[in-house]
TRAP transporter large permease protein
Amino acid sequence: MIGSVAAGLLGLLTLSIPVGIVLFLLGFGVDTFFSSFPLTRGLGNMVWSASNSATLIAIPFFVLLGEILVRSGVATRTYAALDRWVSWLPGGLVHANIATATMFSATSGSSVATAATVATVAMPQAEKLGYDPRLFSGAIAAGGTLGIMIPPSINLIVYGFLTQSSIPQLFLAGLLPGLGLALAFMVITVLLCMLRPSLGGVRRTFPLAQMMRALVDLVPILLLFGLIVGSIYKGWATPTEAASVGVAGALLIAFFFGGVSFGMLGQSVLGTVKITSMIMLIVIGASFLNFTLASAGLGRELTDFMNGLGLTPLGTIMVVVVLYIVLGFFIETLSLMVVTIPIIVPLVVAQGYDPIWFGILMIVLIEMALITPPVGLNLYVVQGARKSGTLSEVMVGTIPYVVAMLVMVFALIAFPSIALFLPQALQ
């Protein structure tokens, strides 16, 4: 059954059928060929139970928050401010790409939205200042992946919903690895540009007065991050409540910078509806598929298979890591999460691993899938923002950052406290 479901998933995706529809079709197939019970009779109840969650209401709020910041011009101001602070480093404006992605990751919760934001603002600068197109675009694609690690993360919300884990704990656990990855991206950029200065374009310095004035454009984003994440950590608000407060804060920031208009608000709401509908279709479709798979005995079949291998807990984790890397080449990242979590997480927890820690490890692997071909969404987002060049240039440019992610994977396995220190310290 495992092989049949995997083959069906890949086959349907190659036909360019929307992912959410694919998940429903696979659920109907499992019901027809592998179950002795009419599981489709529970479809209505499954759709209702999968979508009737107060936790999931946070998703459209965080999406709307990001849409407001992007469409009101706050992104452009943030990028220009960070340019003045980090462009003196070897690599110049490439660091502004990574730093801007990091800051917007702390508000948008979406990797694709973060990559699209930075790409739209940064790409016009690449050719004008003589940057290597591979490294410049690769840094944007990799920096965008931080949107699902640094809180507030939509993917962490989905993971917490599916595993019944504490979302505030997951947000805490993702903070240090997310900032660590951002720092690793910048270190790799510095090393590459020291070895080959032509990759980094012109290093620029600015007068201290200009740098200090630029802080005005950074403070609102930092305050917004503190408002959202701080209220969750302090227990003053649930993730959903904090997200709604964040939307109000984003509107105030946009109003302060003169970016509020009826057109902007309409575009933001429309973008939110589109993205949220896509996410919910995938979540509901995956819930139905997981229901049929569990009812047909796949969980038991997979558990017996893993036990039959006689692996140690470390061996099990390494098998899971390889599995996610391989699947990440072919399956859209959110779909990969919601399809595998109900099957993989119980196996990992049974080996004695912390579900919060594994959630962060999974997110790093999902981040890799966002910038590895042929399905890496961030690759296509960045390429779409370029006026020239090939997709292969973006792919080559992400290779150093994929290496950094692999290092983080093994660091998390060797030192789980990287993810668990803050949740344990602030309990």
Q: What stands out?
A: The mean pLDDT is 82. Residues 55-286+297-425 form one domain.
